[in-house]
Amino acid sequence: MNRRRGRPPVVILLVVCLVAAAAGWFVVSQFAPQKAASSASGAVDLFSCPMDGAQSIGQLQPGDDVWLIGVSDGRWGVVRHPDDPTRPAWVPLAQLGTSVRTGGLPEMGCDVQPPTATSAPSTTAPPTTVAGASTTSSTTSSTSTSTSTSTTTTTPTDVIPPVVTLSANRPYLYVSPAPKCATEVELEVSVSVADPTLPVSIRSIIATWVTPAGPQSAGLAPVAGNRFKLVVTENGPTSGEVPVVITATAADGAGNVGSGTVNVSLREPGSFGCK
Amino acid sequence: MQVNRQRTRALLVGAPLVMLLVGGAVGWFTRGTETGAGGNAGTVVGRPLPSGAELEAAAPTRGTVPATNTMLVDRSILLGHPDDVGVEVPKGAALPFALDATGKLVPVDTASLQPTAATAPVALAPVAPVPFTSAVPPAAPPSTAELPDSTTTLAPTGGNSFADPCTTAASAPCAGGVARVLDAPTDPAPQLAPLSISVPFAATGTIASMCGAIEGSTVADPFLVPAVRPTVAVVVNQPSSIALTGTWADGEPLEKVTMVTSSEFDQQWKTAWETEGVQHSLLACLTLPLDMVRVHASAGRADLAVALLGISSQGRAESGGPITITMPLDGEDPPFVDQVEFGSLGEQRAADGSLVPTVHVHYAVLADELIPPTTTIDPFSAKVYARHELVENADCAGWANNQQGIVRTKAGHFAIAQEQRTVGGRSRPLIVVDGDIELDPAMPGGWSGYACVQLFVADASGNRLTIDLSGTQVRSPLSPTYDIGVVIDDPVFPTGWTVKAAWSTRAGTLWCGPATLDTAAPGSSCTTYARTMPDGAVLTLRAVDDTGTERPPFTVVIPMNTAYCTPDDPLAATSNGCDTGFTERVKVPADATGEQSVAVSLQVRRTAAAGSVQSNPAHAWQIGAAQSFTF
What is the pTM of this model? Predict the structure, then answer.
């Protein structure tokens, strides 16, 4: 009787134990945290680009050779993925042995915000022309007009016009003659042309103003180097002063043309006690 | 019976609990190893990137070994280099030899002699990206750089390994290098960069002062002030013993001598490395005896081809190159006690991180003989001023006397000291001027012109008189250029997608672009000088899908090698100065898992034409003999 009555509980116990073991395995294996990058067997995980949501995309075994193409944060090495060499994969740098000077490799990452500034830094040059470089280039070449003895090669990449800056030695000038202000009937204007593609040249410089008689203009005479002289003998204001815009245009070695202006005043001498 | 019932109940409750725990334990140890969908045999995918302590354990920050540049002397990491104490002199300004009422040295406008207003830095226009006309970029040019050991043929390892052509083919044109997966992570401690020795240079300015302190009383001619001693200097990146040999221009050999280093600085270096993991630089100097230099010199200048061999606890390194060392000439040339002397500082790091070609100028004048006894100058109100400029298209006489030429100075940085020195047997007051003149960064490498110094005196009535005009012909260091391009290289590029490309500095400032790439206009490139971004140029790529949604950015920081290629220099490979760039086809991730991506080719073309290292050191300023000009 005892044996017959005892069998069902034993079977039930076995079934319950098996169910409990299976439940324990299932719950833990499915809902416990995943293993770290390196598994107990020494395998190393490959990850997609480190950012939120990144996942392992493969695994390497100790002794595998990989091709290192970059680094990231001093923490990751970026390698060609074993299954897809064009796909970058991130591996702990500490898990790689290499003789490559990692500081000379590109840094690759996904967590850097793209630049938002729109202006170039003061350190940025538009180096479309490099003296001494590419002397065997088949592109258009010209010799600099500077005192440099090196060959200048112009590549067709310079589309930036030169920066033309004008400065006057005085903010005004008098219509000539102005006997009491004779030293101020002549205005000297310096023109600075900034561009890396030499040679640069000043193409024109002209002064324009408006009087009741209509628009007026006058050319400036070269003094020396990049300096020009303006003297106005007629068509000035009948009294007081009028604004004068002096405009210079210049070209760089690539043919780009830029211009700059400076504003001064043209004074009627009598209005300022200069007659 | 009671006991049996109690045992049965305990068994009924306890056994399932034990089995539950056993099952849980098995589940714990086998978790995450059977989710290999999509991977090859033995490959695990889909595990999230670890974070926090788990990330630190799995992927500790190990740091990177910096690339060597023996042509750059970075004073900011040179142990013992003094902080700048001078004053910034804007382009076109003059430097008075007297302090103002507040006790400061204030540069003045050359025309008005009034304090200069703040001037805007030299700002250059952004570069426009140049579109590629073909879908596939041209192949990278063959590199003349020394091949790393990693390019030798490596047999693939067994098991689950793969056969990447880059790791198995010796001739594969791959950028980067081979790495082998280790059994366990290496020590995350920072790695010491191998011993490297800079190219030799003549000590000037603060470097000369440092050499004076390092050499102390062991110097050959202690009566000379350090600024005018014929001193050879090098910079090393770890304590070492450096032997110097050489050949003078007349063919006479210079027997082996050992350069002098500072044990105090060596100790500071070790402390900084052990406590902070920072690898500073150290200065080594050698002042040659005047009697030795004199027999090989002409007009106070002697050319010497130097060979260096350094040995440290970590290994050995070689370096060398030609230098011109100067020595003071006999005789007097009032008001100068130390003649005007120009020295190359190569390219120096500016506050914005860029490298700026820089010339050093040094001279000392008699303070009590500066104002000439003429009738045109009121000696009671007269002050002495100096102008220091780099001038193009005119010599110093044309610049100072006739306002010819174009001033190409970015700025100057000057310090003025007053000394009492025995001159002609009696103690005289001196004004000693040391300064750096920086070249306009827009100028190309190899810029040529004049470095000029004009001393003039002006009184309160506006009378002026030039008292000296000196200068020399100079040519700036050559600078490599980088053309950084990207082109869509994807045969299955999704319809309607585009790729946005932007080129920026590491500080985040855009210097080129942005450019939008698509199948019609697949590529663009931008060019810059290496010296403008020595810390690297950032290329940001961002895929934009057909709905206009921007995918995560992918950034590549292109390292900039500012060394210049000198193929006839057997040591050029040390700095990899002949590296010609690389092409890398890479899938830019378009989502977090990288499952979606667009393939592009990155192309970096580095141009550094050949220089003649023996007579025309490309990495340094070429400086002629100082000369006087009429005024």
Answer: 0.69
